[in-house]
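ok so for the tutorial part 2 we go from a plain amino acid sequence to predicted structure tokens. step 1 is just haveing the sequence, like this:
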Amino acid sequence: MNRSKSILKDWILVFFGVALVLTGFYLHKRIDSVNKTVLAIPYLFIGIGCGVFGHFIGNIIKYFSTKNNKELIRQLEIDKKDERNVLIAEKSKAKAYDLMTYLFAAMLIMFSLMGVDKLQIIILVAIYLSIQIYAVFWRSKFEKEM
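step 2 — the prediction. this is what the tokens look like for a chain of 146 residues:
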């Protein structure tokens, strides 16, 4: 029963994602404004709609591919909780975070040299610093625990 409620929720959210994308395309064709903020709204709808659609259609595909195969469901759960797979996932996230840190810093320097508006650079710096502070917080928390 739990899986059927979950699949119903997934279908509803898939249709919501499609509706957001279609609304975004409709607004893109209909909005005539000089305000740049208003012009960005259709693209936000399209981006969020694509994300919602992609995530929940993946859940639906997984549901139907494992629907009549209890052994496959059990094997997927084992693979998901396997220590080796968890370690690989955590290590790959750490490497991606390291790369993101350097790329983000390079982007900030490039934007500064290109003369991008100061407010945009300040917002990017605030995001960059919040990510770094978050990393320091978790590092100190893990060091205390281990």
